[in-house]
Write a structure and sequence with these properties.
single chain, 307 residues, alpha/beta, 5-stranded mixed beta sheet
């Protein structure tokens, strides 16, 4: 039986979605360890504070992790909860991911008060998204649209849509569903024709690599089927040296006959050109590298070099 610490302190961002995800993890741990006091340590990160520029220009999604990791190193928190799609492909420093929870809906959401789906948008409609990956796929489908950067938490983005600043916005289904905004989803943008960010919809727990006790506690929440899929997606992104400066999309799923099928995409948010690859395999790391090689052979290197 796992020996319990005196208290478990979980670092989290202060956004409503981050707090929901961390409370969800805390509730799951409380159910497993009723005698363990659990305390949330809400923190503001640079990624939350800098909202007037795109993530690609201010340092990438890793900005959402740094303060939380420093809190763990200072001994102010034992672990941290993240959206796995925000976690860099290579963890910086002595950290590990002992648990990846069962994935929620991985699809993107089309959200609009006026239009049913992308096809219904009029010529020149303003569509908000902070994601180059979403912009690249949308520009490939509808080069006539005006794509406008959109930052802030889910509530802020919905408020800007409701204020008439955009005709539509693109968000993650999982985030909307977790916050009770299911009804705002007008259409799901889903595989295979539209691909999500690597690991979208999955929650991860991070802790110090040398903290075996916390790793053991959190590992009880690990979902093996999800981990295998997101490892393939992240392996592909890692092999491409992808970041939020490069529009990279990936989705892996278990096949009925066994193994995984991984689909990947690299594109250009400037002109909507994209390349796609797909493969089937059993080893997630090898599968990710194989699809990355396909994408490079098809010209992905040009998009990466000019990102």
């Amino acid at each position: 039986m796992t020996s319990l610490p005196r208290i478990l302190r979980i670092a989290t961002r202060k956004s409503p979605l981050a707090l929901w995800q961390t409370e969800h993890v805390a509730d799951r741990l409380r159910a497993l360890y009723p005698q363990l006091p659990i305390e949330l340590v809400p923190m503001s990160t640079r990624g939350d504070e800098v909202l007037d520029r795109s993530l690609a220009t201010v340092g990438g999604k890793g900005l959402f992790l740094k303060e939380l990791e420093l809190a763990m190193l200072r001994g102010e928190a034992d672990c941290a909860v993240h959206s796995l799609k925000d976690v860099p492909m290579e963890l910086e420093g002595p950290f590990a991911l002992p648990a990846i929870l069962q994935r929620a809906d991985p699809a993107d959401a089309f959200v609009s008060n006026l239009y049913e789906d992308i096809a219904a948008l009029p010529h020149g409609a303003r569509v908000g998204s902070s994601s180059l990956r979403r912009q690249a796929q949308l520009r490939a489908m509808r080069p006539d649209l005006a794509l406008v950067d959109l930052r802030g938490n889910v509530n802020t983005r919905l408020a800007k849509l409701d204020a008439g600043e955009y005709d539509a916005i693109l968000l993650a289904c999982a985030g909307l569903q977790r916050l009770g905004f299911d009804a705002r989803i007008r259409a799901r943008l889903e595989p295979p024709w539209w691909l999500p960010a690597p690991a979208q919809g999955a929650i991860a727990i991070e802790c110090r690599e040398d903290d075996a006790a916390t790793q053991a506690l959190c590992a009880a929440l690990d979902h093996a089927q999800t981990r295998v899929c997101v490892e393939a997606e992240r392996a592909m992104n890692r092999a491409l040296h992808g970041s939020c400066q490069v529009p990279v999309a990936a989705f892996a799923e278990h096949c009925d006959g066994g193994g995984l099928r991984l689909s990947g995409l690299v594109g250009s948010a400037r002109d909507g050109r994209t390349v796609r690859g797909a493969a089937h395999g059993d080893d997630p790391d090898a599968l990710g590298r194989r699809v990355a090689e396909q994408l490079m052979e098809l010209g992905a290197g040009e998009f990466i070099a000019h990102a």
